[in-house]
Amino acid sequence: MRKLFQKILLKPVLWATVKFSSRPDKEKIFRALDKLYRNILDEPGKKGLIIPFDGHSGKFIIFSDQHKGARNGADDFTQSEPNYLAALDYYNTNEFSFISMGDSEELWENSLSQVKKFNEATFEAERNFAQQNRFIKIFGNHDLYWDNDPIAWWHLKKIYKEDVKIYEGAVLAVTAGNKPIHIFCTHGHQGDANSDGNWFSKFFVANIWAPLQAYLRINPNTPAYDGEKKTLHNDIMYEWSSLQKDLLLVTGHTHQPVFTSLTHLERLYKKFQLAKQGNKAEQVTELQNEIRKIEKEFSAVAVDYMSMKPFYFNSGCCCFSDGDITGIEIADGCIRLVKWKRKEEQSQREVLESISLAELVINI
């Protein structure tokens, strides 16, 4: 019966979610990002931190959108927990600083007590970073509670056994290629009416979508669902970052990994066009085959993907339906898009893309 309802109700529910929620508003997003970035620079420690680091020795891992839940049918994090725990163990052992960049807890669909009860292992893994002063926690739209509840600080201390301050963003300051740059990290929901206070989206998720998702066991966290809107949001983030000076922008929110301003499909298309121009027949065939395998997961592509500059990055998410997680690493003078996936009953780290910061700053 459940499978029948899945087949019947999936498209109508997703259609309603798109139809009645708000589309990203470029002007609002620009104003919100301008304000947050300026606030961090003018009053560091209030809305966010400024963290200077050495480009060769500094190490950061940025994960977002875990959406930790109550281990029911609506908990998108369940399948990803083993990869997440393995990743945090690796990064803690190797002395990375951990930036948890929003929507870490799914507090639209669950109470905080439920999330705490069913995620003791993940909170303990995060606590290892907090106790070594290597943990930066940023709020998103689904865990806005951390920013607006007067006793959130108390719950954070109970969870992490340390005073953990919540921020809206962080600015990593580094010199690369003799050029000072800022890496501005924030969840990315700012200015988006759907995520920044839209009454319908909150009502729909809490009262309709969450119970229905729990029963149907549907995970919408794939680019195949509402990919056009996700690409539009990423395009707006890219456009804002392109107007800044000596700045890279790293966000989450869309669950769609982006590296040097391109999604995986856009990167393949670009490689394909360059291979055609260079008359590299074997490479053209290989890229065509790879594109065919994944293009059904994307419903939109930026029109100017061939000329986009490498200003913008998106960490993806830690709740893909297959259990994989993605994140942004900064280490060894490089910035990388990484994936953690299960293979032969073990979690393995895979570097999807990598570029040195020195090479990157030439183009910004």
User: How many DSSP helices?
Assistant: 12
Radius of gyration: 20 Å
Query: Which percent bin holds the helix content?
Result: 40-55%
Shape: globular
- Examine the secondary-structure arrangement and name the CATH architecture: 4-Layer Sandwich
Ends distance: 54 Å
Look at the helices and sheets and give the structural class.
alpha/beta
Describe the structure.
- It is a single chain.
- With about 375 residues, this protein is α/β, with parallel strands linked by helices.
- The chain has one domain (about 1-265, about 300-360): Purple Acid Phosphatase, chain A, domain 2, CATH 3.60.21.
- The protein is built from twelve helices and twelve strands.
- It has a seven-stranded mixed β-sheet. Strands 1-6-7-8-9 form a five-stranded mixed β-sheet.
- The longest helix is centred in the N-terminal third of the chain and has 19 residues, at about 1-20.
